[in-house]
């Protein structure tokens, strides 16, 4: 309760105001600022946690851009347009009534997440995969069975990369489950539950649209303590692999063709046309040339190893700049 002033104190205040020694604003009661809070739209995540989620998905967009560029053989650019927290009902209301929704199951939470793909973007992907120029203007209607399988294969592989993007925080397993065109048929959260949406501005050739990820709170909740900047940087420093080692790991999985040439022979076209079963072609004999790609890298002798044809390497052929 406010203190009651005596008559003498009141007179002193009035006198000070009259003489200009005191301003009226100096004696105005200070009121605390009131912040409006909408309980229907609970803010579960701090700005710091949203920044950490943004960094994770920036890594995912880089991986996804490289993957789609290689698959579609055209210019692809994917950038984060928005990261926000809304309730699930707002997310459903924000997307078109006819769109393409990929549903994924996330382990170990057993919850589901959704990626909404603007039809223009999806049709541009399909046009490129099917040999077109990526122009979706002539497309309309729902996906055919073949197109559904293609979308499934593309985004099943894409979300293996999503798992990689989360590895610095948590090991998750994302499995493609279904594809839908009507958002009303998908219920991965209650209407008022808070979800995180990540809008990705996607450009494929001349076509630009959005792909939007929706992460329910139950997926993110177990990793919230790890999403602070301090915890995230600490974990990343412990798991950081030197760039050279990363390159070596990636190169170890690259497939290269290896061919062993027994020899060569030169024939006239007339002799080639007259070849019959049982004819013998003389070849230039010598060391077998073992080619890696289009380059001869080894010389060796033919032989057998456990009943299979084999080559015993006798000599390594080094070329300028080789590390062999």
TrEMBL record:
Topology with respect to the bilayer: Peripheral membrane protein
Domain of life: Bacteria
One Pfam family matching this protein: FliMN_C
CDD domains membership: FliM
InterPro entries: CheC-like_sf, Flag_FliM, FliN-like_C, SpoA-like_sf
Keywords: Bacterial flagellum, Cell membrane, Cell projection, Chemotaxis, Cilium, Flagellar rotation, Flagellum, Membrane
Chief location bin: membrane
Compartments where located: Cell membrane; Bacterial flagellum basal body
Domain Flagellar motor switch protein FliN-like C-terminal: start-end pairs: 250-317
Disulfide bond keyword on record: no
UniProt cross-references to PANTHER family, sorted A to Z: FLAGELLAR MOTOR SWITCH PROTEIN FLIM, YOP PROTEINS TRANSLOCATION PROTEIN Q
Task performed by this protein: One of the proteins that forms a switch complex that is proposed to be located at the base of the basal body. This complex interacts with chemotaxis proteins (such as CheY) in addition to contacting components of the motor that determine the direction of flagellar rotation.
Family: Belongs to the FliM family.
Name this polypeptide is given: Flagellar motor switch protein FliM
UniProt source species: Bacillus salipaludis
Lineage of producing organism: Bacteria, Bacillati, Bacillota, Bacilli, Bacillales
Gene expressing this chain: fliM
